[in-house]
Records
---
Amino acid sequence: MSTEKLPNPNENFSEWYNQIVQRAELADYAPVRGCMVVRPYGWALWENIQKSLDDRFKATGHVNASFPLLIPQSFFEKEKEHVEGFSPELAVVTIGGGEKLEEPLVIRPTSETIIGYMYSKWIKSYRDLPILINQWANVVRWEMRTRLFLRTLEFFWQEGHTAHATSEEAVEETLRMLDTYASFATEEAAIPVLPGLKSDSEKFAGAVNSYSIEAMMGDTKALQSGTSHYLGQNFAKAFNIQYLDLQNQLQYAWTTSWGVSTRMIGGIIMTHGDAQGLVLPPRLAPIQVVVIPIFRSEDEKSTVLPVVEQVKKQLAGFRIKVDDRTEVTPGFKFNDWEMRGVPLRIEIGPKDVANNTVAVSRRDKPGKEGKSFIPIVNLDTAVGKFLVDIQASLLEKARAFRDNHIKDPKDFDEFCKVLENNWAFSFWCGDAACEAKVKELTKATTRCIPLNQSDLKGKCIVCGKPAHQKAYFAKAY
Amino acid sequence: MSTEKLPNPNENFSEWYNQIVQRAELADYAPVRGCMVVRPYGWALWENIQKSLDDRFKATGHVNASFPLLIPQSFFEKEKEHVEGFSPELAVVTIGGGEKLEEPLVIRPTSETIIGYMYSKWIKSYRDLPILINQWANVVRWEMRTRLFLRTLEFFWQEGHTAHATSEEAVEETLRMLDTYASFATEEAAIPVLPGLKSDSEKFAGAVNSYSIEAMMGDTKALQSGTSHYLGQNFAKAFNIQYLDLQNQLQYAWTTSWGVSTRMIGGIIMTHGDAQGLVLPPRLAPIQVVVIPIFRSEDEKSTVLPVVEQVKKQLAGFRIKVDDRTEVTPGFKFNDWEMRGVPLRIEIGPKDVANNTVAVSRRDKPGKEGKSFIPIVNLDTAVGKFLVDIQASLLEKARAFRDNHIKDPKDFDEFCKVLENNWAFSFWCGDAACEAKVKELTKATTRCIPLNQSDLKGKCIVCGKPAHQKAYFAKAY
């Protein structure tokens, strides 16, 4: 690890981000432009995200499966809006086994088409519905401007694809998964996301309605962190997904899709990270506690190491690592684990052993404020409490920051001004022309429209016409 | 599910296999030739395989990561044997984002090249070694003849890639993983594999030595079920993986790679399956116990269902499913779950309730032999014992079948004859010409050469020259 300081996030957030990703060894650049290698520490974080989401999917009746990477190009021409949305982003295989292919194959950018095709084979009767399938997969989109985790040619995600007998059920599923994402982000990643409906101009190509969870990053820009789409009968009609209903009549099914990707890792970095590096929420951290033995002589070593062993056993219920490297100093180790965002550091030196205590330092409160000496007796209980407290503090801090940067400007001038370094929560008439004007003047877009806004009356912040809903406006990743 | 009988495996093993895969809903054909959809039941089986292998990898110090799907074509030209081995099988992306690419990109058929490239960036000193990384990934090989699970264009696997400071360590790692695979196959999949060295003509393109675990299928053909490769310095030299040793001298690293794929699912089907369908080893079965309520009236229903609920709670420590479908008969359900290979079936009817028992049927012993009536008190203990016993019985049965079909022919004529429906375990001089002759005359190949054959002296079964090792010969998938 380099010992140079990170760039100041308040001065150069973008470079601060890039360096954390590399120096915490989360990911690296691949030899192919825009592709990434997710390194073991980053992948362990992703595995924890996967586990936590997967448990939630299974608890709501979903099962996993795996659909093919390669999709016939013609499939993308069957749903009008889908083809327009995705055509510019496709990676196309034209040669297989040394021969030119008769029909080129697309590497999936998303799987509505291929899954729709299979559902049309599997679904015969209302008894086959609902189908509630998720897959963990890699997808490829030919992006021009890429950033590790935030936008890469290949990325990793889960994509849920469900088919239902009625529109009501499909809408219910769409909102259930939006809610699942919101609770995951809030409870596990400590990111206080705002859920809501996407505007027509921001929705998924092929959806009737798209919903998203939107998060505020440390530079106040928005990160769309998960989406859930109600697809109506668009894909069912394009792929002939039909079933016989109770009256033996053929009906088109109603479908949904929803996804969260490795982008979530970018969101975690940019929500919680600080000038010392990454800060990980304990519930997702690959290492929750790092233990650093401190000694300067063989004598001290033989005093300290048995206690380290004892503490290691005592804390076996946590994700713990003992850093017993001998080629670097304790100071180097402190910086290293701070860079990697480990929530809790425990130092054990000869004095600690004499006092039957250990020194515990919280990553979320650098310096003296976060340091305390804790008795070894019942250390496991104390560590458990620390981790719960850190998790809650991270969420609270992020929520305060977010609320501090969501403004309610009184007119369009103020609206444009606040959008430089804030979000605006403002009335919007729903007209795409107003969105376009905002984007042109401020680079901000509508992020989402909160659900259940009833009986609201106001005037569009852009055109002044009557408006019945408020939307979040922000510059976004 | 179709109610037609399966083809007799003794008459048409191949069609029997194809139908089980489809009718047990393990996998389906994708719209692209040679690609498969792994359906939820098949994927759940794969997830159990993954979990079990992953635990073994982590217990031996490995970590997971993820390397890119797309590899510059030029990477395949850097290792001479590797390029010859894989060139005919590549799927090539030539168009990205609507533009022709300057350098075509290959979809990984295996990742030695891209991982070698990254290791050359990450490894500087002996302190960075060993690197012990595994990835769970999809790969694509442009195969001509495909079979679901056994050989598909896209398949799923894990590939471990390690780098070491010494040849000894790398060899040790190669053999450790071979052993890991053998114990996984035997203990979890109940497949009594035979581990050993591959001959030069059968080894991985680019390896110094390849090792495999070989399994005997129900038709006596061999299935290579996992491989572990000692790559020497071949890839280190091709990709410049160098480190500074203790004396500050630049040295090339020594690398290994090893993999097990979704092919293992094909191996499980063809090792344990019978005329009624799939038979799954309890340790990997997605559903270990299926409970079928039996009633013919509302009265009986209200007698039976509370006991079903009670049993469900009692067996919560197992992977259990209650089949409460009302649109099909119990007889249909019996056939359905037999086809899907669920190890244990529990029927609960009014008579059982009256007797405080349930009827338990073992999938591995169809009919009366495998059926018994078990008291509901302590049913969980009884079920646990049944599952352990089924697991052991499956292994024992497969081992007896295997040993029964490995012959030690006395001369080349008998050798050729036994190879029609058996394996031969015979002396071989090591000459590739002898292997070629056997292949031409019998279609059989050397499968592997068991390790630790010392002080053996004999005559090659093919040419009669002195030989110091015996090899398994068999027709293979």
Note: Chain B has three domains: 13-272, 289-384, 406-474.
---
Amino acid sequence: MNHFQPRTNDMFFILQQVLQAPQQLQALPSHAEADADLMQQVLEESGKFVAEVVAPLNRDGDEIGAQFRDGAVTMPPGFRDAYQAFWQAGWPSLACAMEDGGQGLPAVLEATLYEMLSAANHGWTMAPGLLHGAYECIKHHASDELKASYLEKIATGEWLATMCLTEPHAGSDLGMCRTKAVPMADGRFALSGTKIFISGGEHDLTDNIVHLVLARLPDAPPGPKGLSLFLVPKFYEDGSRSAVVCERIEEKMGLHGSPTCVMRFDEAVASIVGEPGKGLNAMFVMMNAARLHVGLQGIGLLEAAWQKADAYAKERRQMRAPGSHAKAGEADFIELHPAMRRILDTQRAWIDGGRVVAYRTALELDILKHHPEPQRREAASRWCALVTPVLKAAWTDQAFHGASACLQVFGGHGYVREWGIEQVVRDSRVAMIYEGTNEIQAIDLLLRKTLPDAGAGLLALLDDLAIDLGTSDDATRLRTALARFRTLVTGQLLPRASAPDAPPDLAHWIAEDFLRVVTLLLMAWSWSRVANADGTDDPRWQRPQSAFWRWIWPELELRMGIMAEALARPAAAAQ
Amino acid sequence: MNHFQPRTNDMFFILQQVLQAPQQLQALPSHAEADADLMQQVLEESGKFVAEVVAPLNRDGDEIGAQFRDGAVTMPPGFRDAYQAFWQAGWPSLACAMEDGGQGLPAVLEATLYEMLSAANHGWTMAPGLLHGAYECIKHHASDELKASYLEKIATGEWLATMCLTEPHAGSDLGMCRTKAVPMADGRFALSGTKIFISGGEHDLTDNIVHLVLARLPDAPPGPKGLSLFLVPKFYEDGSRSAVVCERIEEKMGLHGSPTCVMRFDEAVASIVGEPGKGLNAMFVMMNAARLHVGLQGIGLLEAAWQKADAYAKERRQMRAPGSHAKAGEADFIELHPAMRRILDTQRAWIDGGRVVAYRTALELDILKHHPEPQRREAASRWCALVTPVLKAAWTDQAFHGASACLQVFGGHGYVREWGIEQVVRDSRVAMIYEGTNEIQAIDLLLRKTLPDAGAGLLALLDDLAIDLGTSDDATRLRTALARFRTLVTGQLLPRASAPDAPPDLAHWIAEDFLRVVTLLLMAWSWSRVANADGTDDPRWQRPQSAFWRWIWPELELRMGIMAEALARPAAAAQ
């Protein structure tokens, strides 16, 4: 079995030729130095680290996994050394501000780094995966005192961080959290409760672990507004250990390289982060960063699956393909069989299309942070708010289903562990669930981000997609679809879903379909951009482009049809 | 975690109310006694055995699995006792002829038995899964001498059987097999070669194992016509052991309760089954039985996943559902959330729709065997030939994807092993591959069974589906779709795919879409039949019926569109 090999040229092509990332970044005062050379160099160096240090540990991560004993977690062989090399080389701080010990590079380069890391070793990558979110959270919400102790350690990745949200009875609905924080005389808090599904709650990668924990003050109102955010380290500054215990780690379908911990807090001494009752607010910074990150995991895992299947299909022969030129009695390479070609090109279409969307989202994050014009920042904010849930849901969905399709290319060999493809299927499944299930993402997009402003943000996004499309057939198809979707939204969705007599669940029934339509429009936009770029008239780009329009795009009609039908008969739709 | 509980009432309802199985069977001279009471009694008894004996072993089957050591395979705890009880109670011989030691009951009752067994314990069920095929194969092709030694042992299940086809370099294309059979002086053969992916090649369930092996005589022509079928037992009648060795068992994604063996034959003394060069012919009996069986596995596994998710959704609360009547601060049952309801009802639609199709197929097998009129037998033969690959491909596909959807109902709890739902996802994945990958089934349906007779069989099948539809809206929708598909087939598919200048791969590109269209037509037929049955106006049947038309049926347009597009531009379709 071969380890994952990043193909940084492919990634750079999208950054430079499709998105003109260097020009966009150089227009920002803080990233004036982010030219094509710098971007390419960071991509290559990070690719090298990923290939040489992280990728080779993936199999042991699955087969040996994280081991739990007496409250301690031993990570799989090589994980600690790789992590130590990772932070010491400065990778976690890539996009952190220079004044915090970071390198001040654009977020989009962090995005490409994490995409590669997830492809190479999803389990290992879970550990640093929350770092940047924790960094932003502490930077923007913690007191100066806390920052002095924790900000640089988190920025550089010398210490790792967790996000302690879920409780046994409170999953998607954090408002139900019961963990208590009781004020102490010195201004700190005694925090008690149990949190579950805590990735990296305990491990031996770093000397300290910083837990960010949602909990409730004694006088807090019920529901989400009663939640505050607290910080509890594994070790305090004086070296004493906090009253935080890892009770066990979960036995999972996959992702064995990442310990999923049950964490018990027994009057653990905690510091508050931000204001009382604003915990969810402070956490949202982290959760949004995490959602883009999970979308990138999806793209990376699908690339990992595709690489395996593509290599297998090019080196193994099976049956005669139609129109075969093979000698009598000889079989053809698997990639010559149409059903297999379709699988491979379809996944390629999702990967490349997803990269264009995800890298643009990361660029918009840079623009949101640094662009001098408020109007441009507003557009960036709109893009990130609307596109992040789409990326998270659609590309984690595709990672799992596409990895399964890639497994099919191996036939029976795909089902045995040898080739590593079944690990990608198992590992990727979790990404459809964590950081808000994909169903929650769909509700977020439609019910929280589209209906409340009467579609204003969404319609502006659709306008954004129509800019600079060119005049190709594909562009025309996309423009027509954008117009039709706009009509559906303004003519049926908005008036009917917000009608006074609308069944309260009407929008919920079509949230998934709505998210899929936006997904397909974003994909079509991506592929129209790719078609307009120089150097995409060879099979490397033509085949997935054709796959997109032939086999992925037709879902648009299906989804719009389901929406239209449900909206036409609201009472029947809402059972 | 609860064990699987067969719901035999649901199954009986489809047999009696939807398919009128008792009446159909009683019209066959050999099954005059198969009345409703008998059928219900067999269903209940088999359900009891499945629930009490087989289902409780499923978890250990996965977690402990089959163990290999020094050529021997130890099955998971309880597997041997359960199998001994199974054959001694007469279950394997349910549908074998009475003169062979069987009970002479209809095939449709064997179908329901195996559906339940697969739902309860897929790994265990692999062991007897090939028995009936082996029985038919020996009965119809073996010499009287071989029959005297083996037929009754296989019919009763006292001995288990394997099907040794695949070789390391020959998967889907059996014509490439290299295993050699050299004639010996006594009329027997010395068989040498290596076979892979042999389910139950070695185990401790029975005292003997009978291998049916495809191999090549020294003077055999290359390709599939050079294959003959041989029988090699683990132990000969004199008690001596044959030269067949299990070299190892595969490490797999799931199905750990079934050993997948690499079998080496070292001049093993073998008897020929049937005529030289007709091995594939003799094997096809087995393979067709196996394909229906695998389709039933898909239905069973999806039912197992649905039961778990349905129970969880009814007992766990999560967030407030739209239009909630829950008290302030209280969450709603998961089943009240539209996205979860959609998942549950959609799977229910596939399970019930699949049962109607699968049970009818099993009934057609009974009719094919026993109906006095040749014309009716011909119709039955057509149904089985065309519908079996559809059942195999579409319902194993749905088992995996639907089980994954059911996992989603559990949120993060679905990804941990505790609830057993992730096992169903892992176990079910293999069924998309074995007994001919789902891509092979699509090619079989379109290229081997539809194009060669210029669509005659397919068009007759479409006519069959239009019989007795009634006048409901659903029936009208189905009739319209049948007519449109007929036009697509006769107007575009047949003329263009068989045009002299048609690209040789044209039909291959749309084989999957073709199979999906037939799937959806069969499903629509099922649900129209259900709608016409008495007692289906309650939510138990109304909800999945509505789910079918709202969320499954729209794929028909999508697939017909892809086909029409490819056929309209054959050169573009065939790259």
Note: Chain A has a mean pLDDT of 95.
---
Amino acid sequence: MLVIKVGGAEGVDYEAVCQDLAELAKEGQPWLLVHGGSHETNEVATALGHPPEFVTSASGYTSRKTDRRTIEIFEMVYCGKRNKGLVERLQALGVNALGLSGLDGRLLEGRRKKALKIVDPETGRRRVLRDTYTGTVETVNTGLIELLCGAGYWPVVSPPGISHESEAINVDGDRAAAKIAGALAAETLVILSDVPGLLRDFPDEGSLVTHLAKADLASAREELAQGRMRIKLLGAEEALEGGVKRVVLGTSKGEHPVRAALAGKGTVIE
Amino acid sequence: MLVIKVGGAEGVDYEAVCQDLAELAKEGQPWLLVHGGSHETNEVATALGHPPEFVTSASGYTSRKTDRRTIEIFEMVYCGKRNKGLVERLQALGVNALGLSGLDGRLLEGRRKKALKIVDPETGRRRVLRDTYTGTVETVNTGLIELLCGAGYWPVVSPPGISHESEAINVDGDRAAAKIAGALAAETLVILSDVPGLLRDFPDEGSLVTHLAKADLASAREELAQGRMRIKLLGAEEALEGGVKRVVLGTSKGEHPVRAALAGKGTVIE
């Protein structure tokens, strides 16, 4: 089993990813796709008069401030337009794709963080943010995935997840993909985005880190990575800890982006 | 098997429907829910600067003018916010709900009507509307529904459907529910909306038609029904033709709306 995460940043080439996945499916390679939708969620939220806000946690991670209205807009883009757009495109390419969110059949269940410790952007002081619908995936309904894959369907999976109390929660897509890959005992997790991998000097693409040992992940996260890449490295670490053999951070751009990553193009972490 | 359609008009009481469905599930009654989202699609489409337009076919049926951008907004509301909102609520009520659109696993496949014969609202003349993403469900992937129901999941189904060429197509929810009920050999199809059933003198609720024979459906459609109710009666006819024993048109309002309809409250068609 191969788990692929394709990000939701501006510039991600979904068409190249779908074409590559369709070819892999025809070759008999089982896969599960996890996707994002962040950039478009920002656009739709702004158009609907509820512009996005981001918060930085005390440990330095940036995430979307997610109130109830944000969850609804998030679902519109991730589970609606993006998920169904990918299912439609994959179906047209001959893949019997089936879209699921983490809510469906409790696919991605976890703990809701009712209070987030954040750094106040105005004062720089730490404070607690409440009424937030965010959380972390703890369990994956692998039975549902196996049921569908066994019957010839190709899962296309999207946040949000579901809390133990059955609330929709915004869970990070990279970390959700890592959890899924671990739960399915996937050989490889491929995380595709709009950059070629971990860059030593962002955004200089010539500074790509081609290999990273598991033991060096924590320091790379603290010293090299910026922004979203820090969470991708956290996801990579969680995937390896979950039993995944190899994580490749690659670009969605160019021909055969999935196979290029599988061939080692990008940052290979093992 | 019981198939329930709950409409997307303003004033539909989803909470009452979910609570009733959860109780039925606990009593061991298998069901499949089909839902709409029309009112909210109108709101979101307007907010996003792509206000809804409706066309009237030469045979007198009104439908949403559906270009590619409309399909995306439609998916945002139907497959995103509404579908996931219902799944979340049912999960909170103890039902292992799982949302699917007609695209997923080609659940609702049919023919795309590339050209619609409509009545021009300005000139009153007939003309042909092209580039529309609408169609009619022809086949239901009952294998997928049986797979999921057999494994303990409760399907929550939403348009759009998928064309034979794998394009997302706007299919009518009532008629899709009728097709599903027929394909599953459901005993009863319950169609809930914001009105108590077929009204002889709309909107006078005292003029409710309590029983309607299958043989009288065509004339009722022509002589009594207006607007959306005409399509519901067409769906009822198609369900009975598909082998469903009984169709009940009822209201989503009040306690136990599903069981009230099953007990004969509304317009019973058989």
Note: Helices of chain B lie at 14-26, 38-47, 68-92, 142-150, 173-183, 217-223, 228-241, 257-262.
---
Amino acid sequence: MKKIGKRTFKIENYVGVSGYSSIVGDKEKKGPLGHCFENYSEDEYFGQETFEKAEAFMQREVIRDVIEKAKTKPEDIDFIYAGDLLNQCTGSNYGVGGFDISYFGVYGACSTMAETLILASISIDGGFAEKTLCVTSSHFCAAERQFRFPLEYGAQRSSTAQWTVTGAGGVLLSKNEGFPRITEISPGVICDKKITDINNMGTAMAPAAIQTLISFFEDTGTTPENYDLILTGDLGHVGHEIVSDFLKRENYDAKNKYHDCGMLIYDHSQDAHSGGSGCGCSASVLCGFVLPEMRKRTYKNVLFVATGALMSPTMVLQGESIPGIAHLVRFEV
Amino acid sequence: MKKIGKRTFKIENYVGVSGYSSIVGDKEKKGPLGHCFENYSEDEYFGQETFEKAEAFMQREVIRDVIEKAKTKPEDIDFIYAGDLLNQCTGSNYGVGGFDISYFGVYGACSTMAETLILASISIDGGFAEKTLCVTSSHFCAAERQFRFPLEYGAQRSSTAQWTVTGAGGVLLSKNEGFPRITEISPGVICDKKITDINNMGTAMAPAAIQTLISFFEDTGTTPENYDLILTGDLGHVGHEIVSDFLKRENYDAKNKYHDCGMLIYDHSQDAHSGGSGCGCSASVLCGFVLPEMRKRTYKNVLFVATGALMSPTMVLQGESIPGIAHLVRFEV
């Protein structure tokens, strides 16, 4: 039986990371993790005509780069799982088209990177695939005009607001090959604590992260002490504090082990307020920082918990709250 | 090895349909398949405040009904796979929330029903799940105002335009239980033949359906004669004719076996032009008509090929064409 406890699953076959790539924009390159990102563009259009096309370009670039680095070919990749924040997931639809790989579009808002890794692990472990690609992206300018206001309006940002990361990340998972490997997965459940402030995604997502983390600890009988690093996707400073406080209250001592991708990618001088967000936040930090550090064995045992605010401007205008979700993936060297 | 040929996979364990449910609006209830739909609403709001909330309501209703009919409980369902056409997949996010089931959001436009069935089959066959729910929906009024014009504008519809089905469908798949069963799957690849007319989705999707069908026939060494029914999702009259012509040209004689859900759900008197479309089209026809008829053994061997136009109004305004995708699921009694 693969199921452990209520929501966690063991990946019984060896599912390894045989390649990864990230790409970011100028602000991310100038941030504290800038040295981790080889591929970047100073031009926010990435040489394309529009922000949306720039986002699709980032996905294409990441796919091309992963395939090249892993010395494989598109025809050897069984499935590609991709998604993004844009309406109709256009970053992915226009990004993965042209590679001639069977494609599953997913939508998990900023939790997409972990969602794709979970679905891909299931397909490899179940014997359906030898190699799968997991890709996601976000673009600050495209996201702002879609979810809030076009940048030209010069709208003031609230202190709890986050800055959507311009970036993409792609991971190639392979059967019996590569490292680190994925050993456990814990798909998330929607968690809606009735937050309605579209400028406070950290608070909307934090309860989902807490729910997934605590159910994972209960399922596996482990505590934060069993891991080197516990990394949420993009809760930012506001959401990170909520999760830290709550874990402490529940007697889970995460000490210095618990970090958040949205806090790592920008520093306080960069005017990102509560920190980074967007599918590209956890994707670029995973592919630019976490996986390379795991290959150097800085971290050997990591919980990657990408968090998504399933926020729809239409539904918020109609008085609905913002549901959150958090998917967990455990990487081990 | 489960893979057959280039893109097709055999489901080796028994993955059966242990429950299904559909719900539709007034126009669908008055159509040729009206007698198939038990659950319907004459009110296009389904008693809710907005069209978007009506769509979420349909998903909730279908989930509740499937669970009730199958005499199971939410806690016995391992995963729910759901998606829809609305931005940020709100029909699903607000529809599945509250059921406390691990949730994978997917986006495959109108191909979503088949995409969820494929992902769910993989998870059951691979030993990750005993029971999974697959749900999708669309709503005419919500889709029109999002993708084209608000209905209040009274915009004229072109002859190739389709009518988005107001409806939802849900399938409960179980290990070693229920019938028909899913025996083969063939996930689609993006196919972009540079169609840019947002009022001609049938032509945008038809090439993807042809691609998936022909690669499936080649992979399995079968022809249309091996099946009782070949059903595309929502190509409508325009797309159906393209696929029929092309199959004939490639010497695949589909004769009277090839039908399209978009042609079955409305008749010519209903002013639906080329026919029905939307995620809810193939979902409601599958759950209201195909699966019940398979249980009566009218059909024993069906290819269900849900087709998606990955159309983004933003990208079309930016001069991009409309990519299509088609996912195939084989049901057998």
Note: Residues 181-332 of chain A form a domain with the Peroxisomal Thiolase; Chain A, domain 1 fold (CATH 3.40.47.40).
